């Protein structure tokens, strides 16, 4: 992974998009994952009602088992049933700023989580809560 990766992924269906990433080597890495929807409605993006108002971010292991799900970056992530030994933490505005990620309003429905993961293949899936649709951005940043 580069020190910062930002991906815009085309939708797989009307209600989800997936960004994949690999942690290589022999030691765990820490990443910031974000699913941005509501922040796209306002400046500097101005997508308005086209943005995904209620995103949900789910991190999956290489066997498609959920590791954690986040709804609203100010909320704790719910654990999944993956056997991967991952440490999931709540994202903070300070940490997001430290990697150059653009600002998310406090209390917004945009999603984010910090994950320390062993080497392997992973996916970050963005879907709309209640099967809502809209334009969203999935971002994956390596933390150093």
How is this structure best described in words?
This protein has 144 residues and is mainly beta. The protein has one domain (4-143): Sandwich (Jelly Rolls). 4% of the residues lie in helices and 42% in strands. It contains one helix and ten strands. It has one helix at 93-98; strands spanning 4-7, 16-23, 29-36, 55-60, 66-70, 78-79, 87-90, 111-117, 120-128, 137-143. Strand 5 (66-70) and strand 6 form a beta hairpin. The termini are close together.
Low-confidence stretches: 1-12
Q: Do you know the CATH architecture? A: Sandwich
The N- and C-terminal alpha carbons lie at a distance of: 11 Å
The dominant shape is globular
What is the share of helical residues?
under 10%
Mean of all residue-level pLDDT scores: 88
Separate helix tally: 1
Please state how the strands of the largest beta sheet are arranged side by side. 1-10-3-8-7
Count the E strands. Answer: 10
